[in-house]
Amino acid sequence: MAFRSGLEEKVADLLTNLGVSYEYESTKVPYIIHYNYTPDFLLPNGIHLETKGLWEPEDRRKIKAVKEQHPDLDLRMVFQAPYNKISKGSKTTQARAYADIRKRVRQALTV
């Protein structure tokens, strides 16, 4: 079995030597970390604007969580280069990634 670290392997060996049965990373526990999101701009009509040069994976996760937890928030992204790919090997552009997030949130609300 492959372990992620030498310490995990040592603990597994210890448990085995002690005759203690175990499962390694067999359970996933979901969790939510609460943060406050501060959009870059708030317009008088209630639209929030978030500006991005690079849209890193952690930023995409944050925006996805905000949209899922606040589906009525009118949040619009302003990308410096909306047609840039989200990563080197991806076919997905930054603009498409945000459109997909909005679409999934709308679909989840109609189910």
Throw out a few tags for this protein:
11% strand, 38% helix, 3 strands, single chain, 111 residues, alpha+beta, three-stranded mixed sheet, elongated
Task: Walk me through this protein's architecture.
The protein is of the alpha+beta class. Strands 1-2-3 form a three-stranded mixed β-sheet. Helix 2 packs parallel to helix 3 (94-110). The mean pLDDT is 88. It has helices at residues 6-17, 57-69, 94-110, and strands spanning 41-42, 48-52, 75-79. The chain is 38% helix and 11% strand.
Number of strands: 3
Give the helix proportion (percent range).
25-40%
Q: What is the percentage of strand-forming residues? A: 5-15%
Low-confidence runs (pLDDT<50, min 5 residues)?
none
Oligomer: single chain
**For the residues shown, what is the average pLDDT?**
88
Structural class: alpha+beta
Instruction: Give the count of helical stretches.
Output: 3
- The topology string of helices and strands comes to HEEHEH
Distance between the termini: 41 Å
Rg calc: 21 Å
CA-based shape: elongated
Q: Give the neighbour order of strands across the main sheet.
A: 1-2-3
How would a crystallographer describe the biggest sheet? 3 strands, mixed
A few lines on this structure:
The chain is an alpha+beta fold.
Map the helices and strands.
Layout: H1 6-17, E1 41-42, E2 48-52, H2 57-69, E3 75-79, H3 94-110
Parallel strand pairs: 2-3
Antiparallel strand pairs: 1-2
